[in-house]
């Protein structure tokens, strides 16, 4: 008997019909002799609707109360799913985050899991029932208050439960067939990846692949949880995200796992910075104080004549104005000449565990882009990833060119359904 | 400093604007120097919508899961209300039934309160915050499961908290100005009652007055909680429901408190029952087994020639078919000749603590009805109430006639807003 954790996103439980469809799938899994724990998100756009309601009442809602409000969404979905499963003759019980033992810190809106004590879930399984757990939510032991885990929270709930229950696999159901070599909406020839290491998945997620949240992948890697990303609309095998023992995979792993694009970033250039030690540290201390999530950083070579240099970095567009304001406030003490803000950039990332032992990858990437007339503005690399920044309007071409250059194109086009969960 | 419990029904928090209006009223009460605990129902039709959703998924939802689902409604309302109050500069914290210590038995859908341990609510008050508590919900200590209290549950939550916290008053906010001598929708000349005993209120609620639920009034009487029923749409004084010490009120209390009508009942007549001892007991044992809530019972005098008698009783229309089925199944063992079902009846009740010492009340009532040509089909009395059953289509005339006969008509017509809470 296997223990399977299944996570269904909001688009998989968007209405009564979808809930009944998902219930049938869960019942099949249970009747095949598995123990089943289900983590579910709020139905369709419920979370956005609740958020809108909060903003109708008050512009800046209290974090504690916003969490109390938003957690109503999963509560509705999980209760409906549990009653639907029961109506098919299989016992099912729904549990809130706190009932399922998702203990977090007290950071409302983006709480971190500090412990998982799924005693009631284990008990339900022992009694033959399917346990349905609300994704995205937990509670803090000190304050006794309800918390939410922030973006991608339901994925994280599923992985954390899988780790605590020592599940055989954690299935993440979504509206696409798995992880692709690139976004199928952008690159119709994108191929589904059958198997990918968590390390590669982490880089893909960080590079903008939206199917899995980076936080859930990190958690899975740290706790050795195997993920299976698959579609809730068919029975196809999806993508296995595995945690190979060191060295185990070096022989057969392909050079490149995939190509990701990210259009959510903006670039800030601090121009005319005095080229003296400590200035970069001063700038990024200011940036950090505005809570910006910096991605790439590039410092140009100093023009010897002026004794000044330019420092550029990328960050999410949503954090642009706060960061600009923080830097402007310190213009005199830093001594820079001007700030430039550019939100028309795109970032392309090439990810593959194989590239760490293959020096030719960057050259091939840069050549492919050059031959297509696409200009590279910034470059950053990790051991298994190369990212380049281009103009936003060239990013689609860039992804297709690179996808072909590395022989990633598949034979059958990918099937894509609408909507995204959380 | 007074401790005030305020309960707002669904129609008082139907949308963002209403929530902001209620928040202002709560802030006023707090700033006037009172400690404030607020019990809130789900917004507008939320509960009905959730119930519809459940029935889209499955015809007969599990009780445990239905409670889990429905409690999402109050959760949404209380979080929005708390954030609205906080935005007005007064600290506020929302608590679920279980966080507020509403301990119940495990009867899903109609749980009874077995204990109230409002430690966190008391703590919030001690720290100067307004405590917002979800009405209608509790939890069971043995199963650890969420429960709901059934119809009128939010009133009961408010009264139970008021009792446990030894509140000075429990204010029940609704869409009318208080308790009236009759339903203002039916009798435009109905007068608002300034003060009524809980005993009279209990009889009025049992007789069909819908402003307060009988269960909440019972709880208030048993625990000595003073209720103040008033409108959330204005600042008028409403109706005080008081618990006079024995004898205290006998002098000044008026003869009649009010007239109530109830069109929700049906009448079942078991005809041709053998007139031998034990038959009535047998019939009502059968009726009880179908969980019917019997109201009035009348047994006609036996016709000596036949040795048979007729027994009639009233019960809620919704329970009619189950009770008919239960009786039919036992026709042979009881030995009755036929069953008659009549759902075209109306019940008029005259309530007043003064009538227990005044023999002329029944005579005046029957005379008033007789002079208006309204036929009386059944009569039942308690110490402070007389109820009569008439045809349903004469009930409105009957209420007006009786209201006038007992000089209850006021000078100014009552103001009525739409909608009802729970």
UniProtKB/TrEMBL annotation, chains A, B:
Q: Which residues form the ACT domain?
A: 268-353
Family matches, as CDD domains? AAK_AKii-LysC-BS, ACT_AKii-LysC-BS-like_1, ACT_AKii-LysC-BS-like_2
Per UniProt, the keywords (alphabetical) are: Amino-acid biosynthesis, ATP-binding, Diaminopimelate biosynthesis, Kinase, Lysine biosynthesis, Nucleotide-binding, Transferase
Q: Which InterPro entries match?
A: AceGlu_kinase-like_sf, ACT-like_dom_sf, ACT_Aspartokinase, ACT_dom, AKii-LysC-BS, Asp/Glu/Uridylate_kinase, Asp_kin_monofn, Asp_kinase
Q: Which SUPFAM superfamilies match?
A: ACT-like, Carbamate kinase-like
Enzyme Commission (EC) number: 2.7.2.4
Matching PROSITE patterns: ACT, ASPARTOKINASE
> Which pathway does it take part in?
Amino-acid biosynthesis; L-lysine biosynthesis via DAP pathway; (S)-tetrahydrodipicolinate from L-aspartate: step 1/4; Amino-acid biosynthesis; L-threonine biosynthesis; L-threonine from L-aspartate: step 1/5; Amino-acid biosynthesis; L-methionine biosynthesis via de novo pathway; L-homoserine from L-aspartate: step 1/3
Which cellular component terms (GO) are annotated to the entry? Answer: cytosol
Q: Name one Pfam family in it.
A: AA_kinase
Per UniProt, the enzyme's principal EC class comes to transferase
Q: Which domain of life is it from?
A: Bacteria
What positions does the entry give for substrate binding? 47, 74
Set out the biological process GO terms recorded for this chain's protein.
Answer: diaminopimelate biosynthetic process; homoserine biosynthetic process; lysine biosynthetic process via diaminopimelate; threonine biosynthetic process
Q: Which reaction does it catalyse?
A: L-aspartate + ATP = 4-phospho-L-aspartate + ADP
- Detail which positions bind ATP: 7-10, 174-175, 185, 210-211
Q: What does this protein do?
A: Catalyzes the phosphorylation of the beta-carboxyl group of aspartic acid with ATP to yield 4-phospho-L-aspartate, which is involved in the branched biosynthetic pathway leading to the biosynthesis of amino acids lysine, threonine, isoleucine and methionine.
Q: Which family does it belong to?
A: Belongs to the aspartokinase family.
Write down the NCBIfam families for this protein, in alphabetical order.
Answer: asp_kin_monofn, asp_kinases, PRK06635.1-1, PRK06635.1-2, PRK06635.1-4
Query: What protein name applies here?
Result: Aspartokinase
């Amino acid at each position: 008997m296997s223990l399977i954790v299944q996570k269904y996103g909001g688009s998989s439980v968007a209405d009564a019909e979808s809930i009944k469809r998902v219930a049938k799938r869960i019942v099949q899994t249970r009747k095949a002799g598995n123990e089943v724990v289900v983590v579910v998100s709020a139905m369709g756009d419920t979370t956005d609707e609740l958020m809108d309601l909060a903003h109708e009442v008050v512009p800046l809602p209290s974090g504690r109360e916003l969490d109390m409000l938003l957690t109503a969404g999963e509560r509705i979905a999980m209760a409906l799913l549990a009653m639907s499963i029961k109506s098919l003759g299989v016992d099912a019980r729904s549990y809130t985050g706190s009932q399922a033992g998702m203990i977090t810190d007290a950071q409302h809106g983006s709480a971190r899991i500090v412990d998982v004590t799924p005693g009631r879930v284990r008990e339900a399984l022992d009694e033959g029932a399917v346990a349905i757990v609300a994704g995205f939510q937990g509670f803090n032991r000190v304050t006794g208050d309800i918390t939410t885990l922030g973006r991608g929270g339901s994925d994280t709930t599923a992985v954390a439960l899988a780790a605590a229950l020592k599940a055989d696999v954690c299935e993440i159901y979504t509206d696409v067939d798995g992880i692709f070599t690139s976004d199928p909406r952008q690159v119709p020839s994108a191929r589904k990846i059958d198997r990918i290491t968590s390390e590669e998945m982490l880089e893909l997620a960080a590079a903008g692949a939206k199917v899995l949240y980076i936080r859930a992948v990190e958690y899975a890697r740290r706790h050795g949880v195997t993920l299976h990303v698959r579609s809730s609309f068919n029975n196809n095998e999806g993508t296995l995200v595995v945690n190979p023992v060191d060295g185990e995979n070096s022989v057969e792993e392909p050079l490149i796992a995939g190509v990701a694009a990210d259009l959510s970033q903006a670039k800030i250039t601090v121009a005319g910075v005095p080229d003296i030690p400590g200035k970069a540290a001063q700038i990024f201390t200011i940036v950090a104080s505005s809570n910006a999530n910096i991605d790439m950083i590039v410092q140009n070579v100093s023009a010897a004549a002026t004794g000044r240099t330019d420092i550029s970095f990328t960050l999410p567009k949503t954090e642009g104005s706060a960061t600009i304001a923080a830097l402007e406030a310190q213009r005199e003490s830093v001594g820079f000449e001007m700030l430039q803000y550019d939100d028309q950039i795109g970032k392309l990332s090439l990810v593959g565990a194989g590239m760490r032992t293959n020096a030719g990858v960057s050259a091939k990437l840069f050549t492919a882009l050059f031959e297509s007339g696409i200009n590279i503005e910034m470059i950053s690399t990790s051991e298994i990833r190369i990212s380049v920044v281009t103009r936003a309007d060239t990013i689609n071409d860039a992804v297709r060119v690179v996808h072909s250059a590395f022989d990633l194109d598949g034979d059958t086009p990918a099937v894509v359904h609408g909507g995204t969960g959380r």
